[in-house]
Design a protein that fits this description.
By secondary structure, the protein is mostly helical. It has one domain. The chain has 1 helix and no strands. It is rod-shaped.
Length: 61
């Protein structure tokens, strides 16, 4: 029973550590999803620009 407060503090510290790790993982996942979305948007814009240039050349002929 004497160790109970110390054990409780240890469990609380471990819980806080795990919460911090989870938070960091969630932030990393969100950043990864944002980067993927930005990449897809960039490729989409590149395709639009390519199509616009092809159409521009086609209209000149």
């Amino acid at each position: 029973a004497d160790n109970l407060p110390r054990d409780l503090i240890a469990v609380q510290n471990e819980n806080e550590h795990l919460r911090n790790q989870l938070n960091q993982a969630q932030i990393a996942l969100a950043a990864s999803r944002i980067a993927l979305a930005a990449s897809r948007i960039g490729r989409f814009c590149d395709r639009l620009e390519y199509k616009r240039k092809i159409d521009e050349v086609g209209n000149k002929t």
